[in-house]
TrEMBL record, chain B:
Belongs to the ABC transporter superfamily. The keyword Transmembrane does not apply. InterPro entries: AAA+_ATPase, ABC_transporter-like_ATP-bd, ABC_transporter-like_CS, P-loop_NTPase. Residues 5-229 form the ABC transporter domain. Keywords: ATP-binding, Nucleotide-binding, Transport. This is ABC transporter domain-containing protein. It comes from Galbibacter marinus. GO terms for molecular function: ATP binding; ATP hydrolysis activity.
Length: 283, 300
């Protein structure tokens, strides 16, 4: 245990030196966490339409336990900031040839990949803890319910958030190693998103949308976005409007174990694939 | 003597090109080795394999008699390959701190090594602001951080200006004088000639020589001769089996000895043959000439 944690600490501190001394990485990481806190600004959204006074905070978005679903869904968009950091932290090692020097200096290929993977895990953990604290504070201020049992229910959305980030960042890491150029790796990521979209369309057109969802849930980006479903149609206001027009939402918003498993399997494949690529390549 | 590196039948194929073909050698502690060969002869690929960045096609190598894994062994090695590779946005000192973390040594030697290569006053400058010569010196400081068992240098003076070349060479000499084992890959022979005790010569991936520098060719040297009776002299030398090859170039005869002979003895011999020499010089081939004759290249 002691040895294991020393090992992790060394690899993480190596990666920390590389990242934190890089101005652009530091800027993006700080921006990311500042943006996460901006979710609190939702509370300030209010406007008047004639007699009608609208305040978003009054619509129940900060109610426990709904807030866990709402914030984890919303801030997941900001993960793109860290995606850029992760893709470039990998591809820069190729373009600066520092990967080669690291190996010559005595880092093993396994340690190199692990140092990146530990960083990805750290990013995911810190993001999850951060969003937990921000949501908790927002909820304590604005929630209509404050019983402990209600506050700490539906926490599986935080687990889903963690797994979603972990899978996505691992994908970025893999692309960084595969493509070696950060701009092209990010381009590939966008291309892949489009490919999954087109595939969904083709399956839905050739068969039906149920079949499409069943197949596409196994694709990496789709499986990640399946983890946390959109929370907006769960809002009371939206539900009541829907009921008025006779269109009841009957949707499953839960987080399912098999969805988490699919993403974890992808995470393993991406990290193992990164290692296999690095091992096979001559530098 | 303690063995630092053993290389056994190492081969590397890139698709249809065999970059390194069945190379074997041993590096013993305390010697200074040179890997010589023209560009593209497989020097860097050989070093890449023993340094864990190029996968071998066949063959094997062991560091320190196989007592640890390659990456653990590399922590006791200092190596610089082709170009200095550091994080451009970090200062010299930050870069060296990172290397210390990787090599698992304490950072206390950073200042000492920066001083050795004359970069202590520039320790806070970013790596990208360094000149090529400074980058190369930083690479040497970095390779020395762990007081390595062996220092591996691949073309350390490539692309440097004369002043930079001079600085690097004097640093290498200083390190060699301290008793550190050195493996120096170069296509420049005078670079190797002055420091190396042993040499490995590669040509098109094949190892054509491995051994002491002074035994590279069993050469007894050669005479450069001039006389008014050139034809007589040529005829005499060609008949004499004490000489292996005799060449006439630009009115100068070059006669290679096949066995040891003093210039005075030779002069005596000439007098006995009634040949009066106007020019007699006895020379040993330079390493460069030996190298070229070994690699079957012609000078220019």
């Amino acid at each position: 245990m002691g040895f294991r944690s020393m090992f992790m600490k060394r690899l993480l501190s190596i990666e920390f030196i590389k990242l934190w001394n890089n101005k652009s990485s530091k800027f993006l990481i700080l921006s990311y966490f500042i943006l996460l806190t901006f979710i609190a600004l939702c509370a300030a959204i209010q406007f008047d339409i004639g007699e009608f006074h609208f305040n978003l905070a009054d619509q129940g978005i900060f109610n426990f336990p709904y807030i866990w679903h709402f914030t984890t869904y919303l801030v997941a968009f900001f993960k793109l900031f860290l995606a850029i950091v992760i893709v470039s932290m990998m591809s820069n090692e190729y373009s600066n040839k520092t990967l080669k020097q690291n190996l010559i200096d005595g880092l093993s290929k396994k340690e190199f990949i692990l140092s990146k993977f530990y960083t990805v895990i750290s990013f995911s953990i810190i993001s999850t803890v951060f969003i937990f604290v921000v949501s908790l504070i927002l909820g304590l201020i604005y929630s209509d319910y404050d019983e402990l049992s209600i506050i700490f229910s539906d926490l599986e959305f935080l687990l889903a958030f963690f797994v979603k980030l972990l899978g996505f960042f691992s994908f970025c890491l893999f692309l960084g190693i595969l493509v070696k150029r950060s701009a092209f790796a990010l381009g590939f990521l966008i291309l892949w998103q489009i490919v999954e979209g087109i595939l969904f369309g083709v399956f839905a057109w050739k068969a039906n949308s149920e079949f499409a969802s069943n197949v596409m849930q196994f694709f990496p980006l789709n499986s990640m976005s399946n983890l946390i479903k959109e929370p907006f149609s769960r809002l009371n206001a939206v539900q009541s409007v829907a009921n008025q027009v006779g269109q009841a939402f009957n949707k499953d918003y839960g987080v399912h174990w098999y969805e988490i498993l699919i993403v974890l399997i992808w995470t393993f494949l991406f990290i193992y694939g990164s290692y296999a690529l690095l091992k096979k390549r001559d530098l | 003597m303690e063995t630092i590196l053993t290389v056994n039948h190492l081969t590397k194929k890139f698709h249809f090109l065999t970059a390194v073909n069945d190379v074997s050698f041993t590096i013993k502690k305390g010697n200074v080795y040179g890997i010589l060969g023209p560009n593209g002869s497989g020097k860097s690929t050989t070093l890449g394999m023993v340094l864990n960045v190029v996968n071998e096609t066949s063959g094997s190598f062991t560091w320190f008699e196989g007592t640890s894994t390659t990456h653990q062994a590399l922590k006791k090695v200092g190596a610089i390959i082709e170009r200095p590779n550091f994080y451009p946005y970090m200062s010299a000192e930050q870069n060296l701190k990172l290397v210390c973390k990787i090599k698992e040594v304490s950072p206390e030697k950073i200042h000492e090594k920066l001083e050795l290569v004359g970069l202590l006053d520039r320790k806070d400058s970013k790596f990208k602001a360094y000149s090529l010569g400074m980058k190369q010196r930083l690479a040497i400081a970095s390779a020395l951080l762990n007081d390595p068992e062996i220092l591996i240098l691949d073309e350390p003076t490539n692309g440097l200006d004369p002043q930079g070349i001079h600085q690097i060479r004097s640093i290498i000499k200083k390190i060699a004088a301290s008793g550190t084992t050195i493996l120096l890959a170069s296509h420049l022979l005078d670079e190797v000639e002055k420091v190396c005790t042993h040499a490995i010569i590669l040509r098109k991936g094949h190892m054509i020589y491995s051994g002491r520098v002074d035994q590279m060719t069993a050469s007894h040297g050669f005479f450069e001769l001039k006389t008014s009776q050139m034809d007589t002299l040529m005829a005499y030398l060609k008949d004499n089996d004490q000489f292996s090859t005799v060449k006439l170039e630009n009115g100068l005869i070059t006669a290679f000895l096949s066995q040891p002979m003093e210039p005075a003895t030779f002069n005596q011999l000439m007098f006995e043959q009634n040949i009066v020499l106007s020019h007699l010089i006895w020379r040993k081939e330079s390493l460069e000439e030996q190298f070229l004759s070994l690699t079957n290249n012609t000078a220019n």
